[in-house]
Amino acid sequence: MELFIKNMVCNRCISAVKQEFEKLKLPVNSIALGEVQLAKEPSEKQLVQLRQSLAILGFEVLDDSKKKLIEKIKNTIITQVHYNSGDEQQNFSEILSKKLNKDYSYLSGLFSEVESITIEKYTINQKIEKIKELIIYNEMNLSEIAYQLGYSSVAHLSGQFKKVTGLTPSHFKKAGGKHRKTIDSV
């Protein structure tokens, strides 16, 4: 059985969700961002307890198929932006269509309707937060960051960064990164 869980955006989220399943003695085959594969179907009582314990942690078990699809879109984008290297430079529309086996125009329309933001804008917001993280931790220079996140140039990255944040990357770095958001609040 597969469950879809809203607001799982990082490895700590996976760990927290895993602990809740263990507490309820629900055997899990695998856990990924937004998805849990159960070894067996839970009882109704276990499912109610699971929903309550996950809600306390800020998660939600999704039942609606549209909400599940939206969460898959978000998790695919988060994974691509935050956890993949820049080695595979692919278009997000192609990645989403392929991974979710749906036409991109359908995914885009649904996402915009439900989230009141376009997939493109959501992706840009995720990229900006990743850029902020990399700038703060001083792990890479802007050329390396631009390559990793699929920007055509440092100028393109800088222009988009300034448009979204109101600051250039260098001004952001000087400000000490005071304008960062958590992934789930993007």
Mean pLDDT over the full residue set:
88
Task: Tell me the name of the CATH class of the largest domain.
Answer: Mainly Alpha
- For the secondary structure, the number of strands is 4
Which range does the strand content fall in? 5-15%
Provide an overview of this structure:
- This protein is of the alpha+beta class and about 190 residues long.
- The protein folds into 2 domains: about 1-65, 2-Layer Sandwich (Alpha-Beta Plaits), CATH 3.30.70; about 65-185, Homeodomain-like (Arc Repressor Mutant, subunit A).
- It contains 9 helices and 4 strands.
- It has a 4-stranded antiparallel beta sheet, with helices on both faces.
- Strand 2 and strand 3 (about 35-40) form a beta hairpin.
- The protein is globular.
Attribute tags:
Arc Repressor Mutant, subunit A; alpha+beta; 2 domains; four-stranded antiparallel β-sheet; 186 residues; Alpha-Beta Plaits
Concise summary:
The chain has about 190 residues and is an alpha+beta fold. Helix content is about 60%, strand content about 10%. The mean pLDDT is about 90.
